Amino acid sequence: MRQLFSFTGGVKPASHKIESNRGVVIVAPLPNVLVVPLRQNAGLPSRPLVQAGDKVLKGQTIAGPGGSISVAIHAPTSGTVRGIETHAIPHPSGLLAPCVVIEADGEDRWIDRKPIDPYALPADELRARLRDAGVVGLGGAAFPSFVKTQHGPTQRIDTLIVNGAECEPFITCDDLLMRTQAGQILEGAAVLAHIAGAQRVVVGIEDNKPEAVAAMTAAAGKRSGLPVEVIAVPTRYPAGGEKQLIRVLTGIEVPFGKLPPDYGVQCFNVATAYATARALLHGEPMISRLVTVTGNVERPGNFEVRIGMPIADLVALAGPKADTDRNLMGGPMMGFALPTLDAPVVKATNCILAASKALFPPPGPEMPCIRCGACARACPMDLQPFEMYWFSRAKILGKAQEYHLFDCIECGCCAYVCPSRIPLVDYYRFAKSEIRAREKEKDAADVARLRYEFRLEREERDKQEKAAKLAAKAAETKARLAEAGDADDKKAMIAAAVARTQEQKAEENPSAE
Amino acid sequence: MLEALLVMALGSVILGGALGYASVKFRVEGDPLVEKIDAILPQTQCGQCGFPGCKPYAEAIARGEADINCCPPGGEDGIHKLADLLGREFKPLSGEHGIEKPKSIAVIDEQTCIGCTLCIQACPVDAIVGAAKQMHTVIASQCTGCELCLAPCPVNCIAMVPIPETIDNWKWKYPVFDVRKAA
Amino acid sequence: MPSNSPFLRQPASVQSVMLKVLVALLPGIAMYVWFFGWAVLIQISLASVTALAAEAAMLAARRKPVRHFLTDGSALVTAWLIALSLPSIVPWWLTVLAVLIAIVVAKHLYGGLGQNPFNPAMVAFAAMIVAYPQFMSQWPAAGATDLATQINAIFGQRQLDAMVMATPLDTLRTALHTSGLNATVESVLANKTTYGFLGGKGWELVALGYLIGGLWLVQQRVITWQIPAAFIVAFGGIAGLTHLIDSAQFAGAGFHLFSGGAMLGAFFIATDPVSASTTPRGKLIYAAGIALIDWVIRVYGAYPDGIAFSTLLMNICVPLIDKSTQPPVFGHKEKRP
Question: What is the residue range of C64's domain?
């Protein structure tokens, strides 16, 4: 039995899992029009490879990786590309972004799928295939998975952690996936372990999901070869945070600025492991995912949804109640309110949570901080949230950073417990994005300074070169004259030159005469 | 009496020695003030302050010859930082040097451009590429928005376009303080 | 609902925190009334009304939402602590003045709730003991529960001789410091009718009431264990140690902890979150500091008790303590011991 560790802080909000984790996964119907954003992963957006009028098949690559931290994007069904349009995407800003819009033809015809034997191919080849299959972390951050399987010369990956903790209230898509696809999840995890060079796989699941633990344990029992452990971890938000789960399962604390491979571990979500299995063992790129629709709806549940399906259509399947005032993407602790339901489901969409005043009552009015320290006791990163709040609010950003602002994982525990109901995380998000913007500005200013200094230097050099050239010419003339040796000639030339300059002066400055 | 004198003398020798050692040990090299001021200035090199670039303006501030409120691109924020650094009083942006505008970049209307290269010579950061009688274009990522290319253009084909808000440069807003609202 | 995550909030509020503090004071107050009469309730009511009025006036003057802040309960906590710290038979104007100093000067002139570097109740107490030492040493004798006399003492003519006595701390101090009496701690404390079993007849049970209420606050997670624990261990430690060394000169741990403001200080005054240290290690240092300074004042100082001065002195040190006791952040633990 593995020794478990614990992290400090954390909170235990009502889990609300039972509403949506009964029943089976419902396959959402194919929408007529799919909107596939080009920016779906952390890192750089993908580069479109199709144009208006192109016929595409289900699973065909419609955008390639747009940089080293970027993946491909695929047509979720067969049909015709209507164009690359700016469209609403699920983002707290409500800003529009370029999307490939596909009109489905209803045939849902696959491209030629090519399953491979991952254990017969080199790791680099497998990483390229993961990238080209569009596999990203499905826990919410959507970081390209192939990047996470790499490690530098001073790093290593011995233990591959599969994150099935799903600590956020309301969300159950990972729970359902583990219950129904335990075998495939472990296959995918084994492939990821193979690529990363890991010797063992540890699956961490919060103990409020006994069915998932049972299913995964049974599947692990059927496997041979790579050692797989399935561990039930105590239920306490945010046990599913990457850093917290690594801490609970291995005792290792990965600080800000370091990566798990610096400590010999790496962490993937269960859905990511499943997507890896689909991509490599079945040749099916990442075109759909499980999404929990719950909260203020008649029929909460889990849906298998194509990427690009309008969220409004998805919510309609669950029967939203009349008093729904907003819809969140993600859970109630870390999700965000969707500015519009026009936005499509993307790879990072794990949950759509219909909210109402009854479900999430407005907190009482904000009060000043009384330094009670409840936030510090709740913080899973051992920070002093009220100090960070103090300086963020006063916009003394350097001080906020000194109190480890960037170690904050924005889990929301501090704001959850705050008796003064201060929206603490809002201040951290503001301070972080302000600091990032200022750093960007500073970098731009540094580049501008360098370019300006270079230009000044070049102008100076040009001037000197010109002067040197003139001096050389003068010396040449002098030499020629000296060679001629004729004093009269010389005198005549000097006289001519003097006359010429006087003439020039007169021209330039006629009033002086 | 003699004792007291000796104690005082000894004290002054020790303290003098400590001060002398400190002045050697913790000596500040060069004149970092100009560098510090220059680091706050936005490096647009626009010359709106009346100096030929940010560095000369920084030097002028350091010498006490220029005020700290002459830099429109730096804005109020920049003046606050300069005031903090120099321990001076904040004062609003002086109107004679221009007003604070949203950050913009120059865009050349490529249909109208005649390829005269005048703007290339005017650009302080070499952010315009092109050759004589060839169309010119602005490298958006290098443009500081100094507007120095506008005046030389004989056909008025350069416009300043404000940088739009996108997903990439979007920022979380400062939270609204509820207590004031409740008041 | 909040505009950004987290959308879930625990149903906690400043009001409920303050209310729990008031509830936790009740056992101590009950004991106080039982042994020393109703005067303390009159003082609490007087202080409460004054505090609410002053709070409302200051909020209005500072253009803050009055009802919103008035209901937070923080002014009441300050008022109750002042009423419990002052002798219960001080004239009414002294209580009113003390509360005004606490609310107007120590709280609102520093920026209101959450901004005061000093514990308002202790600022008021310190001001009073410096300004009116003659009233601040007149405590009711245990068992003198004659309401009419007490009301008369508070609101009218002060004919106190019949009912006034000095506190055990005070008499012990006087006895030990007056040369020629040849008193030892044992000989003074032997008088059980005055000194009870631990810290003075009546007073020790009031202290027990505060202890019970305080432990409930710890259990309710309104206060953390560090401050009371460090306070009691440090106070008990220094008193016990010196008592072992010279039992004639120094009273023991039990006497010190159960007399004067020790228990009130440990659980209700030093734990005021706004003016206390906030880091776990900082709280230990902060509370131990208060305890040690208080002991020094009690044994060597000019006042019988020194909770107010020691709290204020440690309040000044809070920024430094907090800065130097920042707990290590997740993942950075190896580097910082």
Answer: 12-165
C9 touches chain B (CB under 8 A): no
Q: Where residue A188 falls among pLDDT bands split at 50, 70, 90?
A: very high
Q: What are phi and psi of C239, to 5 degrees?
A: -70, -45
Q: Is C8 an 8 Å CB contact of chain A?
A: yes
User: Is there a domain that residue B89 lies in?
Assistant: yes
Is C23 domain-assigned?
yes
B56 in contact with chain A, both atoms CB, cutoff 8 A:
no
pLDDT in the model for residue B88: 86
Its ipTM equals: 0.88
Q: How far apart are CA B137 and CA A287, in angstroms?
A: 40
Asked if A228 and A200 count as a contact pair (C-beta separation under 8 A), the reply is yes
The answer for B 152-181 residues in CB contact with C (under 8 A) is 179
C29: in domain: yes
Q: Is there a single domain that holds both residue B66 and residue B106?
A: no
Residue to mutate among C9, C13, C62, C68, with most B CBs inside 10 A, is C68
User: What is the chain C residue with the closest CA to A256?
Assistant: C331
Q: Kindly state whether residues B153 and B125 are assigned to the same domain.
A: yes
> A residues 328-357 near C, CB within 8 Å?
328, 330, 332-337, 355, 357
Cβ–Cβ pairs < 8 A, chains A and C: 143
pLDDT in tens, C195-210: 666 667 788 889 999 9
Q: Nearest CA to CA, how far is C336 from chain B (Å)?
A: 27
The confidence score (pLDDT) of residue C336 equals 41
Contact B172/A89, CB-based, under 8 Å?
no
- AA letter at A305: V
Number of domains in chain B: 2
Residues of C in contact with A16 (CB under 8 A): none
> What CA–CA distance (Å, rounded) separates C332 from A407?
10
Q: Which two tokens stand for residue A363?
A: 């907190």
Nearest CA in chain B to C67: B183
Confidence of residue B14 (pLDDT cuts 50, 70, 90): very high
Residue B150 belongs to domain with CATH number: 3.30.70.20
**Chain-chain contact of C331 with A253 (C-beta, under 8 angstroms):** yes
CA-to-CA distance for A289 and A41, rounded, in angstroms? 15
Residues 6+ apart with CB under 8 A from A496: none
DSSP state of A52: T
Beta-strand runs (E) in A340-496: 351-355
Residue C104, phi then psi, degrees to nearest 5:
-75, -50
Note whether B122 and B157 are same-domain residues: yes
Write out residues 65-84 of C within 8 Å (CB-CB) of B. 65, 68
Q: Look at strands A96-104 and A61-64 and give their pairing.
A: unpaired
> How many residue contacts between A and B have a Cβ separation below 8 Å?
76
- Residue B159 belongs to a domain: yes
Find how far residue A116's CA is from the centre of its chain.
28
Note the pLDDT tens digit of each residue in A18-68: 999 888 999 999 999 999 999 999 999 999 999 999 999 999 999 999 999
Same domain (yes/no): B119, B147: yes
Q: pLDDT averaged over chain B?
A: 87
**Structural domains of chain A ordered from first start:** 126-283 (3.40.50.11540), 364-486 (no CATH)
pLDDT value, residue A225: 86
Contact B45 A452 (CB under 8 A): yes
Residue ranges making up the domain that contains B123: 102-164
Task: Give the per-residue pLDDT at B28.
Answer: 66
